[in-house]
Write a structure and sequence with these properties.
Distance between the termini: 29 Å
Strand content: 25-35%
Strand order of the largest sheet: 1-2-3-10-5-8
Order of helices and strands: HHHHHEEEEEEEEEE
């Protein structure tokens, strides 16, 4: 059985490195965006230096993520970091899209995939078709959702699942109740 010390890599530095790499940004490129040196950024990613609250706000803006995504282990009981994500400790992620709330279910940002809890408000829809270089599998926990995937129209309901492989897709919830889905996305897009 392979054992790794997950809690040892559950750090702000590891999360920042994963975010930077997921966006295809070099150390030098991010350092320039931040107005900081490559050496300082490298030390932060290796947890040899801790960023300040102002630094975290700058990181969030430069990486186009909510500041809350960078709040590592806030209120996580000792021993659970890197293993457990409590319902009350999920980190909000994703773009600010009206009608969609996304929360990270994965314990950190260091995996080759991300697991996301999505809630689609009644009478909401994606503002446009999306296409990502990912493979995604979704499972509808509650409600129903209309999907267009690669030009095909579907209605999925509680218990149904779907897959998107780099295709253009759009979601719509024209119904009176919210829809909830669990998504697994690889590679992560945060």
């Amino acid at each position: 059985m392979l054992h790794t010390d997950i809690s040892a890599r559950r750090t702000i530095g590891a999360d920042l490195r994963a975010l930077r790499k997921s966006r295809g940004v070099t150390l030098a490129g991010l350092a320039e965006r931040l107005g900081r040196s490559v050496g300082w950024l490298s030390q932060v990613e290796r947890d040899l230096s801790q960023p300040s609250a102002d630094d975290l706000r700058t990181f969030a803006a430069a990486l186009d993520v909510p500041l809350s995504l960078l709040m590592v282990d806030v209120g996580v009981p000792e021993g659970e970091a890197g293993y457990i994500v409590r319902r009350t400790a999920r980190r909000p992620i994703g773009k600010d899209m009206p009608g969609l709330t996304e929360e990270l279910l994965s314990p950190d940002l260091t995996d080759d995939f991300e697991m996301v809890h999505s809630t689609f408000a009644p009478h909401s829809r994606a503002p446009e078709f999306m296409m990502r270089p990912t493979q995604e599998v979704g499972y509808i926990v509650s409600g129903q959702l209309d999907l267009t995937i690669a030009g095909h129209e579907f209605t999925v309901t509680s218990g149904d699942s779907f897959r998107i492989r780099g295709d253009a897709f759009e979601w719509r919830n024209p119904y009176d109740l919210p829809a909830t889905a669990i998504w697994v996305i690889a590679p992560p897009v945060y």
